[in-house]
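User: Need the bound-state model for adenosine monophosphate:
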Amino acid sequence: MRIVLIGPPGAGKGTQARVLAEHLSIPAISTGDLFRAHVERGTPLGRQARTYMNAGGLVPDEVTTAMTADRLREADAASGYLLDGFPRTVRQGELLDEVLAAHNATLDRVLAFDVPDDDLVRRLAGRRTCGDCGLAQHATAASGDEPGACQQCGGALQRRKDDQEETVRNRLAVYTEQTEPLLDWYKARGLLTRVNATGSVDEVTRRTLAAVLPSTSRSV
Ligand code: AMP
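Assistant: Bound-state model below.
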């Protein structure tokens, strides 16, 4: 299956992508993670992307699509994948269509995660990511601003640079202006399913699986 996950920052797409990927035995490919890996390695692409990322803006469409197309050529993506955070503009949607056509492939479904803005700001303010396993989780009230330990592997939790308040506001504005038009674009093609992404991770997982695999969702 080839599935696209779209949602504002803090909607939990990354978390759901990991669960779905395991369930469907296909890789979850996050363009944000790919960019962060480039930034960490100090590659030319990472240096180019860092400026946009730190400001909460989008890396240019052609650069992002070229990086994603390279990843989709890897062997583990041959029988399907979940795209987490790509495409994010109508132009990227068009470019993805070209990449798919070159592979004789089509998308099965596009899931859009809906969360009210107030919830997003609250979630992002408390979001911490494990430096070792990458799991995103909410900082506990007890840990406050102190970095805590990962609930999965005990690794050190970090706050993403672009989760600071000013950057978050910009990322939400960018989502509304540049990514939301993509939802109508996919809706017009009959590919879009909206998922209510409020509530617990498990509740959202159940709704997500129901959207992707309607017949098996009840057994999960
Ligand atoms: P994310 O982890 O998905 O929130 O992405 C973090 C940052 O990486 C975004 O704020 C953008 O600067 C950049 N990025 C990730 N995916 C894309 C994309 N599809 N197009 C442009 N920039 C992206």
